[in-house]
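Quick one, tokens below. Sequence please?
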């Protein structure tokens, strides 16, 4: 629960300081060992961090998420690609 609350606060902060986090994009890439709620949080963060310069890296990463066995996460990744 603490991670979720911290992550929620982070999404508010990163929307104000988007460029500040761009060098750390890969830190938010999803790992197969992440629980679904963390995967969804990281997906949201990456979506919010997307800029004209980072979009190609983020979209390539999202494409790898489509092959996940986690159906909820796959659906969220497809939605994120559409944003």
């Amino acid at each position: 629960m603490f991670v979720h609350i911290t992550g929620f606060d982070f999404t508010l902060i990163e929307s104000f300081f988007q460029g500040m986090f761009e060098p750390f994009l890969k830190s938010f890439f999803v790992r197969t060992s992440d629980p679904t709620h963390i995967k969804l949080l990281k997906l949201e963060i990456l979506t919010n961090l997307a800029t004209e310069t980072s979009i190609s890296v983020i979209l390539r990463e999202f494409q790898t998420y489509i092959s996940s066995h986690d159906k909820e996460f796959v659906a969220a990744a497809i939605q994120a690609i559409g944003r």
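The chain is about 65% helix and 0% strand. The chain has one domain: 2-82.
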